[in-house]
Structure prediction request, 583 residues.
Amino acid sequence: MDAQGRGRADEIDPADQWVLNPRTGNYELRLDRSAPQQQQQRPSVSAPRKAPAAPAAPGGAPAAPSPAVPGPRRGDLPPGGGRRGGRKRGKGDGGKGPKGGGRKKKVLVITGATLAFLLVGGSVAGYLYYQHLNGNLDVIDTAGAGTGGFKKDQPINILVIGTDKRTGAGNEGYGDKNSKGHADTTILFHVSKDRTNATAVSIPRDLITNIPECPTKQPDGSVKTIPGEKGVRFNTSLGQAGRDPGCTMRTVKELTGIEIDHFMMADFNAVKTLSTAVGGVPVCLAKPVDDDKSKLKLSQGEHRLSGEQALAFVRTRHAFGNESDLDRIKTQQQFLGSMMREMKSKDTLSSPKKLFSLAEAATKALSVDSGIGSIGKLTDLGQELKGVNPKNVTFTTLPVIDNPAEKIKATVVVSESQAEPLLQMIREDVSLTEVEQQEKAAKDAAKAQQEALLQGNRAQPGDVRVQVFNGGGPSGSASTTLGWLQNNKGVTRASNEGNAPAKLDKTTLEYAPNQADQARALADMMGLPATALKIGTADAAPKTPMKLTLGADFKGAGIPLTAPQKVPEGVQRVEADKAICAK
Prediction:
């Protein structure tokens, strides 16, 4: 970011003029005789000047009086005032490095946006700066791909996307200039309902999956539907065939069963400018590195990286592990964790210059959906995330295995045995970290469920009578469940009743008091939680069947609805507070 672009005309950095008011605890803009003035844009500080009325603070509360606010600086606003015009910016990089080499990866900094807005948003003076930051944002209408918002009493799911498109200031030497970009780096960031913890799941770009049909908003306001594809690389969900970030959001929802609220997409400059804004990101190397493709050359030990060097660290593929994209994901996760720690460090929080540099860098690097397409909305999001401690943020990767259909291994497929339990934990908002409150709640829930299901006898499978309804599960769920119960479990007295009268979010089993032994047996077979069992008030007549209604949480016959309380064995994970040496 150059000096003029940050409003640094006449060698004045705006961050240098924001000072802490010890009476209010807020940062305020103060002009004194030590700060050179632009004579043509505002009067001398020695001349009396009436301070303008302060705008209302976020939430509608009256703002405290504010010091006089200077006029626009050269390079900050266009002639005549008003918001800076929109810019078309590239959102990625990749392909090959400046003199060849293999395909390169980018990393996206989710905390860069949310933390910067959160930190600046703590004062009225910071609010004045929002109007400038709003002009930096690039907003994309994803034609309803996300929920359009988030609720304070529900988990938040944000999709962080990076492309390998070569455009972007200072990145002209990377990648294929003819490429329209792919979803080269994708992270599903899940924030828990109680805002104590978060899980960041990296989705490999070379994963073979299905891309659903995707409506996209065109420049003229019309909607164009892009046909879906089956059995293709995940990274083709963006950029290819005219697909936008909404197509990637839809692909992730179909792949994981997790509803996405919003997306954030950034370019290579996010790594360079954010790492510089915090004064460098600490990294540790277990061995020396000299990679001619990414241009990364570092000695063994600890380093503080910023700018081009930080970008080279997250791009390198041949320096660590077995030189695979999956190992590069691990390196990027380590870098992200370190950047999170640095952003929440005392050195950053106490420095107005760093805070404003972070806000500038994050907004200029960011594209977002219309649901969070303003600084005010992003600040609201930041308020939701402020309580998450880095020790309770877990980075992991969607479990995959080599594609068995290939002789020369180039792609991967989902490892269902490991991926489904992991995704079920996220869907059920079970923390992957050792959060005390979450751990206690999980143990209490498991204990209650065990007591509810284990008390009393169980009927034999042949004595279980049940009607099966589909009230929100995948198409054909009632039929497949009936076949599974009859052929795999010996429940011969079951019937398929088709669609339920109404849709349900959760699967339920309704039974009478004298059918408790049948209910326990069926709950064991289906993996139903205690909360799914609904007991009536009166006994049922002989041969009366129970009523099983499959809800939107039903994923398939034989797949338990009770989320596991531990990460599956062998799933890669690391907490954001852990400093790990790349090797």
Q: What stands out?
A: The two ends are 32 Å apart (CA to CA).
